[in-house]
Design a protein that fits this description.
By secondary structure, the protein is α/β, with parallel strands linked by helices. The chain has helices spanning about 15-25, 40-50, 60-85, 95-105, 110-120, 135-145, 155-170, 185-200; strands at about 1-5, 30-35, 90, 130-135, 175-180. The chain is built from 8 helices and 5 strands, in the order E-H-E-H-H-E-H-H-E-H-H-E-H. Helix 1 (about 15-25) packs across helix 8.
Length: about 200
Amino acid sequence: MFISFEGIDKSGKSTQISLLVDWVKQKGYEVVQTSEPGGTGLGEKIEKILLEPSTKEINGISELFLYLADRAEHVEKIIKPALEKGKIVISDRFADATIAYQGYGRRLDIPWVEELNKRATHGFLPDITFLLDISPDLAKKRSGSEEKDRIENEKISFHQKVRQGYLKLAKKHAGRIKVINGEGSVKEIQLRIRKILGKHLR
């Protein structure tokens, strides 16, 4: 089974993934925890280019192709091999992120982005996606004074477009994408995720 987590930055994905990985392991499953960008050796180099604040502005199309290159490597080197061995893969971001960030956020042609995503992944998609939904205002408060990466440094209007993009995707793919209110307590959010996933694991 392939599970992905999505949401704007500071939505709580890392915390919820860590808790879920422990829970799934306790149930006796082998789990591979990974992330985008940066899940492979090449991906780590791409991640540095994409997120390093000193990189400053990248052309939207260039940014898109860097994410797609990272994803193509991720699928072939990490995700598919793990699934073929019967493991559960839990990834922090996957293809939906590119549609939300580069499609809706950067205003690139969405059908074109979707087609390129399919080519990079050979049509591969998660079995279930958890979208942790929070407002960009809350995300900004959560980040506080800590150092931000290049994408986190974008204007709040950009993150609002990304959030709306995610919600449109969730409506379009309601069977796969489960929207979780990310503004509740860590425990409440995790229990809801476990309840949904538990049905799939059975």
